[in-house]
Amino acid sequence: MDFWIIRDGEKAGPFPDYEIRRKIETGELGPADPVWSESMAGWTPVGEVPVFRVTIERPPVLPPPLPAHAVAAPPVWRRFWARMFDFTLYGVFLWGFLTLGKVDLKSVAANPWFIGLQLIPWFVIEIGLIHWFATTPGKALLGLKVLNRDGSKLSAVQSLRRAVLVCVAGVGLGLNLLFPICLTISWISLRRVGASLWDFVGGHETVRTYPPAWRTVAFVFLFLTAMNVQGWLLKPVAFSLKPEELEQMPAWFRDFYEKARQESL
């Protein structure tokens, strides 16, 4: 059934009854506003029309309070540095384990299979962390959590699917050539749909809480410490250029390389 209303002294319509209900619910029409349809003798206050009386008498339906986790969407930079922290911390344990095992780091770092697969153990760890705790060390320090849109934690299967997407589409399997491309795609996804590709596809969301200030201080301190430890562990790799390889480098790089190598001795 269609109805006419009076708006700004002029007749407007016709509107279907469900549109009139919507206007009542949103406050565009009040109980005293006149409406008319072909089945009515004349203009009648909307509150006296039986088909709309229930809508007017029913208390407004308000959405429930925001769940405790849904405080704010995190900035892109916060997500980026949280992941870089996780990778760096993981790198400390990875290279430390190889060093303690007296593995030839130069040979390992030159192995293309290792370059492509070195992050796989981390993503296995991340599957469990996201499933059980909804966060990782870097995310926890910066107040980030990965949750389903209803506020629940990801199941093991959801966490696995998400980790695979991050590994492939997020960091390009750790390959230097693919990483910046994947990073750009992730940034575009966050800007356009408000979620990363892996969260959007999986129906998840990364939400931000507001941790105490000491966590941010701890994040900076631990991040810098981890970077320095990893740099110390990677000295055999960083200063492993052969003389003929060094000769092919620009003069400024050779000077920088030699100076850094002398300082590391």
From TrEMBL:
It comes from the Bacteria. Its main location: membrane. Residues 4-50 form the GYF domain. It is a multi-pass membrane protein. The keyword ATP-binding does not apply. GO terms for cellular component: membrane. InterPro entries: GYF_2 (IPR025640), RDD (IPR010432). Keywords: Membrane, Transmembrane, Transmembrane helix. It is found in: Membrane. The chain crosses the membrane at residues 80-100, 120-142, 163-188, 213-234. Residues 74-201 form the RDD domain. This is RDD family protein. It comes from Luteolibacter ambystomatis.
